[in-house]
Amino acid sequence: EAGVTQFPSHSVIEKGQTVTLRCDPISGHDNLYWYRRVMGKEIKFLLHFVKESKQDESGMPNNRFLAERTGGTYSTLKVQPAELEDSGVYFCASSQDGRLARELFFGEGSRLTVL
Amino acid sequence: AQSVAQPEDQVNVAEGNPLTVKCTYSVSGNPYLFWYVQYPNRGLQFLLKYITGDNLVKGSYGFEAEFNKSQTSFHLKKPSALVSDSALYFCAVRDEEGDSWGKLQFGAGTQVVVTP
After folding, report:
1. The pLDDT value given to residue B66
2. How far apart are CA A92 and CA B9, in angstroms?
3. CB contacts < 8 Å between A and B, how many?
4. Which CATH fold topology does A5-97+104-114 show?
5. How far apart are CA B79 and CA B65, in angstroms?
6. Cβ neighbours of residue A41 under 8 Å, at least 6 residues apart?
7. Neighbours of B1 (CB within 10 A)
8. Is residue A107 pLDDT above 90, yes or no?
9. Which terminal residue of chain B, N or C, has fewer Cβ atoms less than 10 Å from its own Cβ?
């Protein structure tokens, strides 16, 4: 069974440009999460999808970040325009049931470097 | 608001010696605690969790953690460390806002270095 896959693994862009990160969750996992780790600090929650709906987007830092999950399968996270402080590693995770204490399955992360 | 702290940036241990990675937490309600590990160039992997029940929780790869309510701690332990245990370890607590079990608050991480 394929795990959570993220693309690209590393993206280097200039300030003001746009980047789109993609996450493919484990098949059958309705719950999809985005997290990010900035500058070696704590891993911070960004948002949670249940199927195609945003269950909780309280961690999204500002309106330069847009997450979508059309059709309830893969998700994209767009940063537009990117700023220097957006550099970090963006993790996607999925789980079977968001209401129980099930483990999260994480992807390898997408490293974003904004110059 | 809940929080979790990992007081050590790095833990160094010789192979075969016991390994302990410390974690303390602060919650207003019931604590739901997790440990994840990140091996080099890999995503985070679930090790174990405490929801309720026995204070000693056993997890993957020979790891266990002891929940201590009076000390608000959830230290990760392994009796005999392996070089392959060298990785970044994260303690996490369920975020009490909202009803999502997947919304976690992570510690800053502890780098474990096991030397041969």
Report:
1. 95
2. 24
3. 74
4. Immunoglobulin-like (2.60.40)
5. 11
6. B108
7. 9
8. yes
9. C
CATH number of the domain enclosing B41: 2.60.40.10
The angle subtended at Cα B45 by Cα A43 and Cα B25, nearest 5°, is: 50
**Interface contact flag, B44 A91, Cβ < 8 Å:** yes
CA distance B77 to chain A (A): 19
Q: Do A104 and B46 touch (CB under 8 A)?
A: yes
Query: Is residue A40 a contact partner of residue A98, using CB atoms and an 8 Å limit?
Result: no
- Chain B, 19 to 48: residues with Cβ < 8 Å from chain A are 32, 34, 36, 41-46
Helix (H) or strand (E) holding B74: strand B73-78
Nearest to B35 by CA among B95, B78, B75: B75
Q: Are A7 and A67 in contact (CB under 8 A)?
A: no
Instruction: Report the domain count for chain B.
Output: 1
Parent domain of B56:
3-115
Q: Is the pLDDT of residue A33 over 90?
A: yes
Q: Considering chain A, what is the average pLDDT of its residues?
A: 92
What is the mean pLDDT of the segment spanning B80-85? 97
Q: Is B65 helix (H, G, I), strand (E, B) or coil?
A: strand
CA dihedral over B18, A37, A67, B92, signed as positive or negative: positive
